[in-house]
Amino acid sequence: MFITVRLPDGSTHRLEALEGWRVMEVIRDWGLPIKAECGGACACATCHVWVDEGWIGKLVPPSDEETEMLDGAFSVDDRSRLSCQLIMTPELDGLEVELAPESLAETAGDRAATGTSG
Length: 118
What we know:
- The chain contains three helices and five strands; from the N terminus they run ββαβαββα.
- By secondary structure, the protein is an alpha+beta fold.
């Protein structure tokens, strides 16, 4: 199974995904810069993605908890989901998502360029 992830810079990445894994875990484990600060506990909204419109109807609807967390995110629209709440199934093979800018983790290169640490 595969997912395609588009980053805010416009680059796209086709990632192999295993059944039962959270989309957030797939993105993180392939080394893409996703914050995912709570590690998948649905407690922060730092793994906010926009799901390609063709895939929205194939997803399990968001829980009340996920909807509440998304209320605190920026640029939320009908395509918004928390990637920690999207579990890979054979039906989601080929899923396409875009990482929301506020979910982009700062990389070591970014910190060096700005003189920050962390």
